[in-house]
TrEMBL record:
Signal sequence segment: 1-21
Membrane-crossing segments per the record: none
Keywords, in A-Z order: Signal
Cited InterPro entries: CAP_dom, CAP_sf
Name this protein carries in UniProt: SCP domain-containing protein
PROSITE patterns: PROKAR_LIPOPROTEIN
Originating species: Caballeronia sordidicola (Burkholderia sordidicola)
Length: 371
């Protein structure tokens, strides 16, 4: 059984940034490994990130995994940081206070799902329910000791029992990456992370995993209840083009995990989504799309839809569709196949467009999982 409720980061104008706000989480699958990295154009020395001209960190590398070996938390961080590093968006630093708030909310969800006090995943807690900690991700993080200027976003997932900590880690993290809105969020500019986890048990058939993300460096404005801004945190070089799936990634899921709201409600069974993202931390930063295509190993073109945020409509190909839910942040573009991808097949993706009027392009290949 899989429980899916979407992690969404809607775009809202705020100071110099587009704001991304989270709402839910879920899914589960198994992504493979990548044989080649999509490294950032510039990287700081291992474990000692430098700052950009805007005051944000350069993409973080060499972050130590401080979770105990063999635990879900250690496995999940290795999986997520490995993916983010290869994608080029930077690793996340474990945060003791965010661990506390994330674990508290995981305990709240698990116990109240078991007691049928709640029927699904939620970021908000009800004070009269068991294991109440604090109402929102922001208030929970502050109760745990996070700075009042730190922005906090949250991603939640739940699924069925797994055989090991590593299997739980893949089911949780990969499920969030096999989507549109979750993928957009999991690869954002946040710099720190806290992880909460409750395994499936005799009392509750579903495990619950929870990620609390923090952004403090060069943050602007008063944090909202559950949001990560696109300004500040850690930022790619302006010449970097990040994408997912990764270059030469294998055993990529054939389908997109269901999300609510649905980015493609007219697609009965969409294939695994592709994403391109560039740095977009200033007001007006835009990634427009000239073309975004996917072909299989025989050269056949895959039918699908190009999905873009509203600010990218002007200058993009006429067939590109504005995100119907208004949840994509600036600087991102997606291609969503209309049908599941074929099993054990190598696909080639090609993207061309412009970042703030400067032409950008990238091409890469990946291989889907066997049946």
């Amino acid at each position: 059984m899989k429980m899916i409720r979407n992690l969404v980061f809607p775009t809202v104008a705020f100071a110099l940034s587009a704001l991304l706000a989270a709402c839910g989480g879920g899914g589960g699958s198994t992504n493979g490994t990548a044989a080649a990295q999509n490294a950032p154009t510039t990287q700081p020395a291992s474990g000692t990130p430098s700052t950009t001209s805007s005051g944000a960190l350069s993409t973080q590398t060499g972050i130590a995994n401080s979770y105990p070996a063999g635990t879900f938390e250690a496995a999940a961080l290795d999986i997520l940081n490995g993916y983010r590093a290869q994608m080029g968006v930077g690793e996340l630093r474990p945060d003791v206070m965010l661990n506390q708030s994330a674990q508290a909310h995981a305990a709240y969800l698990s116990s109240n799902l078991a007691a049928s006090a709640i029927s699904g995943l939620s970021h908000d807690e009800v004070a009269t329910n068991a294991n109440f900690y604090a109402e929102t991700p922001l208030t929970r993080a502050r109760k745990a000791g996070s700075p009042v200027t730190e922005w906090i976003g949250e991603a939640i997932n739940a699924g069925s029992i797994q055989t090991s900590s590593l299997a739980y880690g893949h089911d949780c993290v990969d499920g969030l990456l096999d989507t549109v809105y979750h993928l957009n969020t999991m690869t954002g500019p946040q710099e720190s992370i806290g992880i909460g986890f409750l395994p499936a048990s005799a009392q509750e058939a579903l495990y619950v995993c929870n990620f609390d993300f923090g952004l403090l460096t060069a943050a602007i404005g008063a944090p909202l209840d559950n949001a990560i801004p696109t300004v500040g945190g850690q930022q790619m070089a302006v010449t970097t083009i990040a994408h997912a799936p990764l270059t030469n990634e294998t055993t990529v899921a054939r389908t997109m995990r269901t999300e609510a709201p649905n980015p493609t409600p007219d697609f009965a069974a969409p294939g695994h989504p592709l994403m391109v993202r560039v740095r977009a931390d200033q007001a007006g930063d835009t990634l427009t799309v000239t073309s975004f295509t996917l072909t299989d190993q025989s050269g056949a073109v895959v039918t699908g839809r190009i999905l873009i945020p509203a600010n990218a409509q002007s200058g993009s190909i006429a067939s590109a569709v504005i995100d119907p839910n208004g949840l994509l942040g600036q600087g991102t573009a997606f291609f969503i196949p209309a049908q599941p991808l074929a099993a054990n097949t190598t696909y080639s993706a090609t993207f061309s467009g412009s970042r703030d009027g400067v032409p950008v392009s990238t091409s890469w290949s990946f291989t889907t999982a066997a049946l």
